[in-house]
Q: What sequence folds into this?
């Protein structure tokens, strides 16, 4: 992470090297030993930065053995985009091709890695919180809020992908099986997420875009409110309006710049990477290529034709930035992702000098998402809205996408139109899966998609399996999701 790594990261290495591989893949995955390293404020700050490192993960091109290093968010497109109607793997070989065909099983290594990665985030956060009194008094509230934001971020990912999961908010040892393997109901997970984020909102400011901030906590909490079984639409609306009214964020005029002018005015929270740095780069950008392969494998996130058609009809200026047919080389159902070309280099540049060690940021939250969540919150589960606030937010997105016809006056917005707008605006940013769940259309949309593609879809696919490895080492205490 570019900015963060310039802060105390040599110290952070000392925090985690002491546990070496055991810490990277603890047995069980949800256990971590209490560290005795923390002796000063600088050490606690290094521990905070180490939480981001767990989110960032390890480049698959530099450490190929998945048993030795967790990937953080670098596999997230497999667990999200591939399980929607957006994208698929270019090949049917290997476990990474299981997601788009809905044949994932409990031994899938990418699922296990993601589960491990999010629990690394959680346990590193808990570890920092356990030693927070060592920090300077003036920094304790800030470090606490930052750790709790990241813990909430990880739990929000887990609860939506796996449903009930173990809820661990203190440092625990590997023998504390009750804490490590007891699945807690979604409602309790969400209650903890809300509490952590409310504290983050109250304490943090907007100093950073590559670390937790007030706006990031507000935006994440808004999405949490929208995602619960009983959504808090009013709360989500207030949070989105607080971000909009802060005046600190805006849509960039050029959609391309959102992804290649990093930490710009539209970014609220991003996980950063460094190009050409084996330890701090990412590999997912290269793996999105296929026709002219830049990655190790033959193309992930191949664009499904129905998404391409949505771009043709509703993408506007976003289309050429988001997808490519390689100047007519690719068939309509073989388009590739253009949004994350490695460091901005495309096939004409042979994807640049660092294709497999790319520095493209992982964009976790941006202002366009907040504007569309604002519309969703105002719509409050109804089929449409004509509310002026919702229309204003929606039109801002449309005017950027279609500048030649701006202002693009809108008199009403339907649920279907909002979902479509989110699809083309946020394609390949790992939002589609969660959108389909939140809009209560996942089963219908994915069943139709599976029929079109010749896949077999069933309700079990709405949740990922709890990793078999976790269940095995729990001695039967940890239970599996239905259908696995």
A:
């Amino acid at each position: 992470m570019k900015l963060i790594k310039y802060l105390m990261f040599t110290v952070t290495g000392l925090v985690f090297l002491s546990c070496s591989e055991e810490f990277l893949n603890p047995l069980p995955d949800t256990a971590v030993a209490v560290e005795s390293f923390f002796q000063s404020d600088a050490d606690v700050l290094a521990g905070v930065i180490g939480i981001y490192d767990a989110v960032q993960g390890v480049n698959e091109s530099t450490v190929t053995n998945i048993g030795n290093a967790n990937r953080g968010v670098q596999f997230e497109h497999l667990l999200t985009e591939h399980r929607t109607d957006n994208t698929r793997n270019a090949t049917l070989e290997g476990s990474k091709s299981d997601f788009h065909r809905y044949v994932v099983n409990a031994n899938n290594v990418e699922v296990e890695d993601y589960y491990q990665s999010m629990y690394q985030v959680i346990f590193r956060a808990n570890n920092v919180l356990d030693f927070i009194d060592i920090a300077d008094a003036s920094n304790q509230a800030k470090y606490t809020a930052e750790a709790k934001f990241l813990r909430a971020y990880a739990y929000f990912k887990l609860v939506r992908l796996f449903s009930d999961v173990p809820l661990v908010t203190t440092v625990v040892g590997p023998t504390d099986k009750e804490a490590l393997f007891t699945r807690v109901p979604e409602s309790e997970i969400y209650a903890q997420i809300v509490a952590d984020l409310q504290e983050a909102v109250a304490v943090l400011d907007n100093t950073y875009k590559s670390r937790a901030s007030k706006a990031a906590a507000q935006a994440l909490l808004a999405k949490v409110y929208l995602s619960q079984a009983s959504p808090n639409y009013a709360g989500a609306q207030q949070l989105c309006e607080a971000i909009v009214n802060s005046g600190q964020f805006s849509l960039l005029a050029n959609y391309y710049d959102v992804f290649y002018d990093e930490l710009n005015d539209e970014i609220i929270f991003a996980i950063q990477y460094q190009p050409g740095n084996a330890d701090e780069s990412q590999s997912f950008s290269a793996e999105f290529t296929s026709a002219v392969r830049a990655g190790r494998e033959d193309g992930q996130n191949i664009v499904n034709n129905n998404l391409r058609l949505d771009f043709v009809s509703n993408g506007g200026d976003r289309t050429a930035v988001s997808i490519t047919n390689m100047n007519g080389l690719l068939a309509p159902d073989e388009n590739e992702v253009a949004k994350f070309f490695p460091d901005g280099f495309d096939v004409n540049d042979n994807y640049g000098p660092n294709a497999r060690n790319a520095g493209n940021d992982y964009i976790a939250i941006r202002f366009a998402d907040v504007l569309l969540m604002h519309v969703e919150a105002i719509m409050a589960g109804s089929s449409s809205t004509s509310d002026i606030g919702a229309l204003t937010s929606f039109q801002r997105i449309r005017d950027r996408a279609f500048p030649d016809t701006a202002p693009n006056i809108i008199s009403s917005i339907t649920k279907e139109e909002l979902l479509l707008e989110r699809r083309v605006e946020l394609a390949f940013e790992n939002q589609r899966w969660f959108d389909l769940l939140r809009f209560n259309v996942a089963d219908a949309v994915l069943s139709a998609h599976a029929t079109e593609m010749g896949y077999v879809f069933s309700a079990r696919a709405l949740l990922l399996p709890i990793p078999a490895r976790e269940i095995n080492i729990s001695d039967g205490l940890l239970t599996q999701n239905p259908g696995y």
